[in-house]
Amino acid sequence: MKKFLAMPLLAAMLLAACGGNEKVSTDEQQEAEDLNEDNTASEDVEQPTEEDLTLTKVGEMVDDPEVGTLVLENKKKVNQDIVQGGLTIHVDEVKVITINNMLNDFKDEVELNTGKTPGNELTYMQVSYSFKNTSDELLSWSGFATAIKEDGEQLDLDNNDIIGNQNPSQIDIQPKATVKDNLIGIPVGKDIKSIRLVTDDVLKDNNDSDEPIVYGKEITINLK
User: Fold this and answer.
1) In this structure, are residues 81 and 217 in contact, taking their beta carbons and an 8 Å threshold?
2) Band of residue 118 on the pLDDT scale cut at 50, 70, 90
3) Is the dihedral of CA 94, 100, 104, 110 positive or negative?
4) Are 173 and 140 within 8 A, CB to CB?
5) Residue 127 has pLDDT above 90, yes or no
6) What is the 3-state secondary structure (H, E, C) of 178-195?
7) Among 52, 75, 136, 167, which is most exposed with the fewest C-beta within 10 angstroms?
8) How much is the pLDDT for 193?
9) What is the average pLDDT value for the chain, to the nearest integer?
10) Model confidence over 29-88: pLDDT tens digits?
11) Is-cis flag, bond preceding 187, omega within 30?
12) Contacts of 118 (CB under 8 A, 6+ apart)
């Protein structure tokens, strides 16, 4: 009699064990599905485009997920040319931008590029420019070399560029070629009224020419 009773009990225990494993498997599957949904949701969050982050009106504010909150303090269309031998540099526009709530990673970049530890707020001038080699020979140039602020402070832009190394950095410019969409960033005060910029020397590929070096020139940009 006991033998016959034992069989149903054993079967019941096996069924109970199987049911427990099935529940664990179902729970794990649900967790995996939830994780996949979270990942999919993260991927669905649209990152702001360059256009979204472009400040066009004074007082406008945008949140850059890699930098912080950007505020446009001032802007001016310059449209001024610097003719330096066979190189023509066209300064298009300047903007004065303040960064609030600066992210730690960007603070580290600023410290690396300027040698100074920033606080939670930083104001800089963004200079947009292009340049063209109007000559028939190869030229080499390294962008703007120096900035002189209103109080006379001189900044070496190789070591004080807010947005990274100045663009370009020792570039060869082919004859009759144009390089567009260049930017530099210079730490300034919010109420800046003017700044002086000095270009780097232009080097000719032919060192035997009469003027292998065309020395840098200065431009003054007024924001008022």
Assistant:
1) no
2) confident
3) positive
4) yes
5) yes
6) EEEEEEEEEECCCCCCEE
7) 136
8) 95
9) 82
10) 666 566 565 555 445 556 778 666 789 899 999 999 999 999 999 999 999 999 999 999
11) no
12) 102, 107, 110, 111
Strand partners, 126: 95, 185
Residue 16 has pLDDT above 50, yes or no: no
Judge contact between 206 and 85, C-beta under 8 A: no
Residue 125 has pLDDT above 50, yes or no: yes
Tokens standing for residue 68:
């912080």
What is the C-alpha end-to-end distance of the chain, expressed in Å?
107
Burial class (CB within 10 angstroms; exposed 0-12, middle 13-18, buried 19+) of 57: exposed
Instruction: Report angle CA 3, 6, 10 to the nearest 5 degrees.
Output: 145
CA distances for 121 relative to 17, 72, 161, 174, angstroms: 62, 13, 16, 40
Q: Measured between alpha carbons, how far is 140 from 213 in angstroms, rounded to an integer? A: 10
For residues 72 and 57, what is the distance between their CA atoms, to the nearest angstrom? 7
- H or E segment to which residue 112 belongs: helix 104-114
